[in-house]
Amino acid sequence: MIKENFSLKQFNTFGIDASAQYFSTFNSVEQLEELLAFKKDISNASLTMPLILGGGSNILLTKNVEGLVLKNNLKGIEKIAEEGDAVFIKAGAGENWHQLVMYCINNNLAGMENLSLIPGNVGASPMQNIGAYGVELKDVFYELEAFHLNEKQTVIFGLNDCKFGYRESVFKRQFKNQFVITSVTYRLSKTPHFNTSYGAIEQELQAMGVEQLSIQGISQAVINIRSSKLPDPKVIGNAGSFFKNPEIDQQQFEVIKQTFPNVVGYALDNGNVKLAAGWLIEQCGWKGYRKGDAGCHAKQALVLVNYGNATGEEIFKLSKEIIESVQQKFGVLLEREVNII
Ligand code: FAD
Ligand code: EPU
């Protein structure tokens, strides 16, 4: 059923009260096709492409959406093959990401444990190649099925087709708004390859008293760390990191370091340095800032928050001010990670 002037407040983790001109969910590719046929009947030029919604945890709604919003509800998790140490798990795009991670861990399948507790759905996981604690989606990705909105056919994308990068994929760039990802197949491993080198994982495992490493233990450590600094969207509206960590060359890093010896940066394999955007933003005095209901999280400056009734425009304006001040102080341009609608 298609609803008109439908509030999206419950459908985005920022909790922005914007509405969709038309809204519906779909449980199958057939239903999606029917809804697309409906779209053709609407004679409004602005209705070029529908907005596909997963968990709404990586979007900022800055206005009401003119046209059709389709929330994907494609379900199902199944083991489709085994090959030596590898186990292939296929999941419907509407499955919750963390529940899929838990399914794999409960079945002793390794690879996703560092990606525990990331909000959102399976279908969005390849969109920005989700990542955390030293692991990215591409490390467990096998292939995905995506429905082409114009050509009305399903296309299979393998690892190389997706052109994954840091918070990047082909679906955010040249194929933006062209495909609906309908399922993703992941390649898990029966033998774990523990990755505890990132951030505070080792420290947290020690604090937990873990002596024997396990995927369950790593998952719990990641959950503990995340819960200690990231705001729970059910309590304070947010979409995780609002900006990407910027990459600069070694020369620029040295220049910044002369004035700011404590600058936080990580050496990359290509010789460049990735700066901690949270540190840059904190140094500009934004951490804990609040104007009206729009703010910068007090425990993690990279996360912008909605304390209740902020509008998308207010959050966007704050992000603009932050970009300008970081540019002015450090000469570094921050790029938004959240999808601005
Ligand atoms: P949505 O917000 O619904 O959609 C995101 C984008 O993808 C939109 O442009 C949408 O149109 C498009 N899209 C969604 N589903 C489909 C589909 N099936 N087909 C085509 N297009 C689609 N991200 C990380 O990478 N690492 C983190 O550690 C992390 N931590 C977070 C912590 C918090 C507290 C929050 C709130 C967010 C965090 N995020 C993190 C961001 C977010 O969880 C991920 O980007 C997640 O993958 C978004 O999933 P979603 O289903 O909510 O996507
Ligand atoms: N820092 C500060 N002040 C802050 C925040 C961070 O100084 O307010 C500095 C600290 O030195 C800290 C460092 O920045 O050690 C890194 O902070 P953190 O470990 O919290 O990670 P991050 O770089 O801010 C990235 C991802 C997160 C991901 C974590 C863990 C991006 C844009 N963000 O954050 O992803 O969960 O690493 O891997 O890459 C997301 O994408 O939404 C997201 C939450």
Compact description:
The protein is built from seven helices and 20 strands.
Rg, rounded, reads 21 Å
The chain-level structural class is alpha+beta
The string of secondary-structure elements, in order, is EEHEEEEEHEEEEEHHEEHEEHEEEHE
Any idea how many domains? Answer: 3
Low-confidence stretches: none
Ligand types: flavin-adenine dinucleotide, uridine-diphosphate-2(N-acetylglucosaminyl) butyric acid
- Describe the largest sheet: 5 strands, antiparallel
Strand content: 25-35%
| CATH hierarchy, class of the largest domain | Alpha Beta
Mean pLDDT value: 95
Number of helices: 7
Secondary structure: helix percent: 10-25%
What are the main properties of this structure?
341 residues, 3 domains, Uridine Diphospho-n-acetylenolpyruvylglucosamine Reductase, domain 3, five-stranded antiparallel beta sheet, Uridine Diphospho-n-acetylenolpyruvylglucosamine Reductase, domain 2, four-stranded mixed beta sheet, binds uridine-diphosphate-2(N-acetylglucosaminyl) butyric acid, alpha+beta, Uridine Diphospho-n-acetylenolpyruvylglucosamine Reductase, domain 1, binds flavin-adenine dinucleotide
Account of the protein in words:
The protein has three domains: about 5-70, Uridine Diphospho-n-acetylenolpyruvylglucosamine Reductase, domain 2; about 75-190, Uridine Diphospho-n-acetylenolpyruvylglucosamine Reductase, domain 3 (2-Layer Sandwich), CATH 3.30.465.10; about 235-340, UDP-N-acetylenolpyruvoylglucosamine reductase, C-terminal domain (Uridine Diphospho-n-acetylenolpyruvylglucosamine Reductase, domain 1), CATH 3.90.78.10. It is about 25% helix and about 25% strand. It contains seven helices and 20 strands. The strands form six sheets. Strands 6-7-12-10-11 form a five-stranded antiparallel sheet, with no helix packed on it. Strands 1-2-5-3 form a four-stranded mixed sheet, with helices on one face. The radius of gyration is 21 Å and the shape is globular. The chain binds flavin-adenine dinucleotide and uridine-diphosphate-2(N-acetylglucosaminyl) butyric acid (EPU). Flavin-adenine dinucleotide binds next to strand 3, strand 8, strand 12 and strand 13.
